[in-house]
Request: fold
Amino acid sequence: MPSWNRCVCLPGHEGDIRDAAAWQRVLDSGVEPEIVWSELAAYVAGADLVVAYNGSGRDFPLVRDAAARAGCHDPFAGTMLVDALIDLAKDLAAGRGNVEMVVV
Reply:
């Protein structure tokens, strides 16, 4: 599966990114939130698993909340979310047969 990577514009959160290089990437190539969350939903639509390290504590709620604020549907709706290291996710996938895995 091809990789997917976007910088999302952060209206009202300009001071939240403290790393100058990261902030410059947002300024140079930031995409409107509605587009980002729609693209993410399409990207993970065929996946059986979405895996993130500390996903339950940070990534999954952050994405869901940001999508809701942008008026978008939950990009992870209907997808199994796994909060684990990649090796654990591979073990889970191997036990389930033919599984397509997306790493966010």
Observations:
- The helical segments are 20-29, 33-44, 55-69, 86-95.
- The mean pLDDT is 81.
- The chain is about 45% helix and 15% strand.
